[in-house]
Amino acid sequence: MAEAGLHNVVLQGKKRPGSDDTDGDDFMVAKKSMAFHPNPWEDPAAALASSRHEFGEHGGVNMSIEASATFTVMEPETMRRMFAGELGPDRDFFIYSRHFNPTVLNLSRQMAALEGTEAAYCTSSGMSAISSVFLQLCSSGGHVVASRSLYGGTHALLTHFLPRACNITTTFVDMRDFEMVKGAIVEGKTNVLYFESMSNPTLAVASVPELCRIAHDKGVKVVVDNTFAPMVLSPARLGADVVVHSISKYISGGADAIAGAVCGPASLVNSMMDLHQGALMLLGPTMNAKVAFELSARLPHLGLRMKEHCHRALVYATRMKKLGLKVIYPGLEDHPDHAVLKSMANKEYGYGGILCVDMETEERANRLMHYLQNYTQFGLMAVSLGYYETLMSCSGSSTSSEMNEEEKALAGISPGLVRMSIGYSGTLEQRWSQLEKALSRMQDSTLLQKN
């Protein structure tokens, strides 16, 4: 829809009347009176609880799944008005599920509540959300300043695809070096400052307020990937313009769905859904309604899951450090960004559910993961994160393999860096015992090799 007033994403709408006559002021007043307002905003769990609860078609406590690809109208004139942008989902008028679907719209409202943004739109994958935001905020000849330490797929998008296909270039910087960030931003040319709230895989924590101040002083939009830290950090509340997610990770929690989200101002969602210029509308990374239904049922217990992920990660990191391992975890006081994270974090959610162990070489990293999975059953060798089982991967040869050796070195990715997404299945002590046994086997193996 061409700028179709998509503030609906955060309005608490209701079912439209049987007729298509929606000009009555009482209808819109009723909808506006129940609108979700981000302020006052306590924390993500409170915001989620205060957001609209969508009931089922027949009064079910769970919403119904609207599986239709297309939607009917009662009067021919209504369709013209919908395509003209006069009627839209804010008044419960839907055209086609690539545009808006009621079930996906409900999940989008929940994501907006979670991140404390005015609006959100859920997509078919995290990369589709990221790509669409860049294509919406940058035109040919545009410029991005981005963190050196990023998920490999995002790094490849910025390094290879966007320059070739769209003439959009990127300057990569150390986000801890504020002067370097300032120097890389070219006023009048740079469109976006992009970084991850916690970097993948090095777990550097971005100082969101300071980076936003630097960017906004130069008229640049700030886009933050918060995939590693839902509930823990709320970048939009710290100044970010747009927050993107791979919902496939912590928010899903089941490693059984691929999904993404763009959270930000309603004006941005409007522009991304524009009939003629909208990246989401025209590229069509549409989320399936059945996936949206599944995911919306998991958001209410995201806070509980994150607390346990984070609690176990802190316990394991503390104990592993005492054993002499080179552990990277922002919850440890000797982590260079510990104070920054503590100053920004939402209370009681911890410091993230990911920790890294630097085994220095890929061979040692692989051997450790082999023992952890095949000898003690501590976790699984797999990419991704946020699953209830611990997932382990050697980042340099997996999720960061798109980067060359120089790029990995600049990002601080050691060849032996093992990323662990700490799960919560089993008891904490049971899993710790399995971890200790694997480390013991590792030491025995090392001794045998020396002899």
Provide key terms for this protein.
451 residues; alpha/beta; Aspartate Aminotransferase, domain 2; Aspartate Aminotransferase, domain 1; seven-stranded mixed beta sheet; 12 strands; 12% strand; disordered N terminus
Give an account of the 3D structure.
This protein has 2 domains: 6-300, Type I PLP-dependent aspartate aminotransferase-like (Major domain) (Aspartate Aminotransferase, domain 2, 3-Layer(aba) Sandwich); 303-450, Aspartate Aminotransferase, domain 1. 39% of the residues lie in helices and 12% in strands. The protein contains 16 helices and 12 strands. Strand 2 (143-147), helix 6 and strand 3 (169-173) form a beta-alpha-beta unit. Pfam families: Cys_Met_Meta_PP (PF01053). Residues 1-24 are annotated as: Disordered.
Annotate the secondary structure layout.
Layout: H1 25-33, H2 44-50, H3 76-83, H4 102-115, E1 119-123, H5 126-137, E2 143-147, H6 152-166, E3 169-173, H7 178-184, E4 190-196, H8 208-217, E5 221-225, E6 242-246, E7 260-264, H9 266-272, H10 279-283, H11 289-296, H12 302-322, E8 327-328, H13 338-344, E9 354-358, H14 362-375, E10 380-381, E11 391-394, H15 405-411, E12 417-421, H16 428-450
Parallel strand pairs: 2-3, 2-4, 4-5, 5-6, 10-11
Antiparallel strand pairs: 1-7, 6-7, 8-9, 9-12, 11-12
Helix pairs in contact: 2-4, 4-11, 5-6, 14-16
Question: Major sheet: size, sense and barrel closure?
Answer: 7 strands, mixed
> Could you tell me how far the N terminus lies from the C terminus, measured between alpha carbons in angstroms?
72 Å
Please list the strands of the largest sheet in the order they lie side by side.
Answer: 1-7-6-5-4-2-3
Classification by helices and strands = alpha/beta
Q: Strand percentage, roughly?
A: 5-15%
Low-confidence segments, given as residue ranges, are 1-39, 447-451
CATH class of the largest domain: Alpha Beta
Q: What do we call the CATH topology of the largest domain? A: Aspartate Aminotransferase, domain 2
Count of distinct structural domains: 2
Shape: globular
> Which CATH architecture of the largest domain?
3-Layer(aba) Sandwich
